């Protein structure tokens, strides 16, 4: 009797499943080795068990080199497939893009007030609304820029005003300092001139009256006389002139 065909489905019995996995894994590794020897092929086999255990087989070349070769081949195939797909997509997208460009160009002409004859009343109303909305946005932006410029100019004005006040304050302080310095120098100059000024001359001595002692022994005062009186006084005998320093003691 021939061997019946085994139905491929998951083995529910855990022990039977483990035994089947071990037998089939050994046979798979054997078949991989046979095809690599018989056909001189590079074979890489990777198997993970249900518990995550790794079983692998590779030909004389290392597993890493075979995997790198696989990556290069698969990347090239994917790139070629993507290129062909993109070319197909471009051929489909090109008419759509051309139609879109034509619509945009016509809209620009309409916004500029050109090519309005084919448009219906509803389309013209929609175009007018678009233009009004655009004008509102333009005016709003213009007013915003005006307000920003005014704010910046006001800030500059305040800064210049503050700077002007600071400069005026510094000028006043400098003028005050220079005035004080000039007064101080003038006072020092006056003191120096006073210290080097020669002393004033002494007042002239007033001539004191002279006393004359006559023959009778009485003292006679002689003040300023004219020439005749002085001549008469010199002729009188027995007269003695007392110096001024003695006259002070006599008066006392």
Task: Fill in the keyword field for this structure.
TF_MADSbox; 5 helices; protein dimerization activity; about 250 residues; SRF-like; TF_Kbox; 3-stranded antiparallel β-sheet
Describe this structure in words.
The chain has 252 residues and is mainly alpha-helical. The protein has helices at 14-39, 63-111, 121-195, 227-235, 244-251; strands at residues 44-48, 54-58, 210-213, 219-222, 240-242. The strands form two sheets. It has a three-stranded antiparallel sheet with strand order 4-3-5. It has a two-stranded antiparallel sheet with strand order 1-2. A hairpin with a 5-residue loop joins strand 1 and strand 2. The longest helix has 75 residues, at 121-195. The chain is elongated.
Compose a concise summary of this entry.
Helices cover 66% and strands 8% of the residues. The protein has 252 residues and is mostly helical.
Please identify the structural class as seen in this structure.
Answer: mainly alpha
Note the quaternary state here.
single chain
The number of strands is 5
Q: What letter string, H or E per element, gives the SSE order?
A: HEEHHEEHEH
CATH class of the domain at 11-83: Alpha Beta
Measured distance between first and last alpha carbons: 191 Å
Helix content: 55-70%
Largest sheet: 3 strands, antiparallel
The tally of helices reads 5
Average pLDDT, to the nearest integer? 76
% residues in beta strands: 5-15%
Q: Can you tell me the CATH superfamily of the domain at 11-83?
A: Transcription factor, MADS-box
In the CATH hierarchy, the third-tier topology of the domain at 11-83 is known as SRF-like
- CATH architectural group of the domain at 11-83: 3-Layer(aba) Sandwich
Low-confidence stretches: 207-228, 235-239
Strand order of the largest sheet: 4-3-5
Protein name: HbMADS-box protein
GO biological process, one term: positive regulation of transcription by RNA polymerase II
Pfam families: K-box, SRF-TF
Domain MADS-box: 1-61
């Amino acid at each position: 009797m021939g061997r019946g065909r085994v139905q491929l489905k998951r083995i529910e019995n855990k022990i039977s499943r483990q035994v089947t996995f071990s037998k089939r894994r050994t046979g798979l590794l054997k078949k991989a080795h046979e095809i690599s020897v018989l056909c001189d092929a590079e074979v890489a086999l990777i198997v993970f068990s249900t518990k995550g255990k790794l079983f692998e087989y590779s030909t004389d070349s290392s597993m890493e080199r075979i995997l790198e070769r696989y990556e290069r081949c698969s990347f090239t195939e994917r790139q070629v497939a993507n290129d062909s797909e993109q070319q197909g997509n471009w051929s489909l997208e090109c008419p759509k893009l051309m139609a879109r460009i034509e619509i945009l160009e016509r809209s620009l002409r309409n916004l500029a007030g050109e090519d309005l004859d084919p448009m219906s009343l509803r389309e013209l109303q929609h175009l007018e609304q678009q233009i009004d909305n655009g004008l509102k946005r333009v005016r709003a932006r213009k007013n915003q820029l005006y307000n920003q410029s005014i704010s910046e100019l006001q800030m500059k004005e305040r800064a210049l005003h503050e700077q002007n006040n600071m400069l005026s304050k510094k000028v006043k302080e400098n003028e005050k300092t220079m005035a004080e310095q000039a007064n101080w120098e003038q006072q020092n100059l006056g003191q120096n001139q006073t210290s080097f000024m020669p002393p004033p001359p002494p007042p002239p001595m007033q001539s004191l009256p002279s006393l004359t002692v006559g023959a009778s022994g009485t003292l006679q005062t002689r003040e300023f006389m004219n020439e005749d009186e002085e001549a008469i006084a010199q002729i009188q005998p027995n007269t003695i002139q007392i110096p001024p320093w003695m006259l002070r003691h006599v008066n006392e």
